[in-house]
């Protein structure tokens, strides 16, 4: 269940279009061309079209069990929650299609393999102003391609580094980066929870400061006016990550983390309930409790520069979904 949100395109990215095949062009010596991409743009286009068809079928039936055939965590985890919420709220999901798909495909051989597709999404006949970025993964030969991330950048990102075969570079060695990708969840949380703007390694961005940080502060303040307290902690759960080298030497990385929000009544004997019609109410039902624990999944698209660059980390996209709620 890929949800439509606005996005900005990668600035100046030399992406493969549907008419171009990875590795095609003027012949060059093998050393200069570099290793070809793991699949062609034409093959990637078929993968995207197949996902759109299957995704619309899942959305039409609100069949969460079918998600396992088209998505992988962390996206599948959030999609399952959104389907439960949608069904509980008796809503429907409009048709979603991907227009003008383009691809960033890493080089390499063997499995697992993956690539990034960017496309202008159209939902219910309404086009998005900018592309959405989706990570497609395949674990072994013959296995289905599954979407692991689908995010909409709010700001331009550095262009991916491409070799002479139009293939990108998947990054596994992160020793040169300012922040290690596996530490992003905690570092991002510290940034907004401890009000570290201008004091840490993060540049100000729409996704991090305007969306996530401000949303957290406003939400906590609103709860206080209702006699409730919010405490948030970050889970140490490891979730899949995907990183591409960029032309400036840094990486463009897809990461996710889970946080647990505990909401409790400030006054002794008070009960916590959720406003009807909210996503949280759909997951929790009408039950009241002294406290609730809400597990949320946060997904990010981030540019991490190298230590030597002197640049700062910039969060380009943020997505949030409540995935489970339980009384305390």
UniProtKB/TrEMBL annotation:
Keywords in alphabetical order: Signal
Residue ranges of every copy of the DUF8094 domain listed in the record: 38-313
The protein's name: DUF8094 domain-containing protein
Organism of this sequence: Lentzea tibetensis
Signal peptide start and end residues: 1-22
Coiled coil: none
Pfam families the record matches: DUF8094 (PF26366)
Record-linked InterPro entries: DUF8094
Transferase found in the keyword field: no
């Amino acid at each position: 269940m890929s949800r439509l949100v606005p996005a900005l395109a990668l600035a100046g990215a030399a992406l493969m279009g549907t008419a171009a095949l990875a590795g095609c062009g003027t012949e060059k010596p093998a050393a200069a061309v570099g290793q070809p991409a793991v699949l062609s743009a034409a093959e990637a286009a078929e993968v995207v079209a197949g996902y759109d068809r299957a995704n619309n079928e899942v959305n039409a039936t609100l069949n969460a069990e079918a998600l396992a055939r088209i998505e992988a965590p962390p996206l599948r985890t959030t999609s399952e929650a959104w389907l439960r919420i949608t069904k509980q709220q008796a809503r429907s999901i409009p048709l979603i299609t991907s227009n003008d798909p383009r691809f960033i495909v890493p080089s390499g051989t063997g499995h697992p393999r993956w690539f990034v597709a960017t496309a202008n999404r159209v939902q219910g006949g309404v086009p998005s102003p900018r592309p959405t970025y989706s990570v497609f993964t395949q674990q072994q030969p013959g296995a289905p391609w599954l979407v692991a991330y689908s995010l909409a950048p709010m700001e331009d990102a550095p262009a991916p580094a491409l070799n002479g075969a139009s293939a990108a570079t998947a990054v596994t060695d992160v020793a040169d980066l300012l922040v290690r990708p596996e530490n992003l969840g905690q570092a991002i949380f510290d940034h907004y929870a401890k009000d570290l703007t201008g004091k840490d390694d993060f540049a100000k961005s729409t996704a991090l400061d305007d969306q996530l940080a401000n949303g957290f502060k406003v939400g906590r303040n609103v709860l206080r006016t209702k006699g409730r307290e919010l405490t948030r902690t970050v889970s140490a759960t490891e979730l899949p990550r995907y990183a591409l080298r960029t032309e400036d030497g840094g990486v463009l990385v897809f990461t996710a983390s889970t946080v647990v929000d505990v909401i409790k009544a400030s006054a002794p004997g008070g009960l916590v309930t959720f406003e009807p019609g909210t996503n949280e109410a759909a997951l929790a039902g009408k039950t009241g409790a002294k406290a609730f624990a809400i597990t949320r999944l946060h997904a990010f698209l981030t540019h991490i520069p190298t230590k030597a660059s002197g640049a700062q980390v910039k969060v380009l996209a943020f997505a949030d979904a409540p995935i489970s709620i339980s009384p305390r």
